[in-house]
Amino acid sequence: MQETIDLIAHRELRNLRRYTRQTGQPTSLAGLDLEPMTSVESIEIDEEHVTIQYNKKTERHYNTNAITQREWVYKYNDDPEFVAAVRAVIQLARKHLYDLPENVACPPGCAECCSGYEPFVSRADVERIAAHLGMTYEETLHEYVVERASADDSYVGWLRKVTEDGDASHDAADKCVFLQGSRSGRYYCGIYDARPHDCREFTPIACDDVDVALSRHGTYHVGKPFQPKRRKRK
């Protein structure tokens, strides 16, 4: 059980008086922060020091938040008990160094990231998709991208979402317009070779959304690629 401030104060006052007697250096209880370490935010360890940030507090205002937290820094390498504790952490890290998650690779037909996620697209992405579909840049941008320019001009928007019936949707939980195979449940990307950079860079490692129940064995046959609906020109 955590000690109260009063008990800590009495104990530390005795320690301060003992230190003063031993060293001749004056000490004052007012120079100590007696707030108990109750809520640890982060622990950082280097070759000499351990730094613990704790007891974070947020003071909210209309236009900003004032955030404060305490920080304890200790040079541990002269403390045998602490060195042993850090050594134990390092040994545990070595033990788990080659542990692998279940989702090292996306299982066939998963498509969890094709709903609930809106991949951003750049101008180069739209140009590549347009060439893949045999459409113009403007047609592809209007038909398949929710246009939203980024502040740094890197992106022009994100891929459009559609419902299971194929109707345009603004709900991020709906599927990507290019996701195929929803009727069979064996999902695949209809423009895989031309998919956006955001999709290409996705890694399933440590991703909680990957459906690990899907089989990774056997041959997976994808269906026909995505075909745009050709509209009659007036």
Give a short summary of the structure.
By secondary structure, the chain is an alpha+beta fold. The chain has helices at residues 5-23, 80-95, 123-133, 137-144, 197-200, and strands at residues 40-45, 49-60, 65-75, 120-121, 145-147, 157-159, 161-162, 168-169, 175-176, 179-180, 188-189. The longest helix is centred in the N-terminal third of the chain and has 19 residues, at 5-23.
Description:
By secondary structure, the protein is of the alpha+beta class. 25% of the residues lie in helices and 20% in strands. The chain contains five helices and eleven strands. It has helices at 5-23, 80-95, 123-133, 137-144, 197-200, and strands at residues 40-45, 49-60, 65-75, 120-121, 145-147, 157-159, 161-162, 168-169, 175-176, 179-180, 188-189. Strands 1-2-3 form a three-stranded antiparallel sheet, with no helix packed on it. Helix 3 crosses helix 4. The chain is elongated. The model has no long low-confidence stretch (mean pLDDT 90).
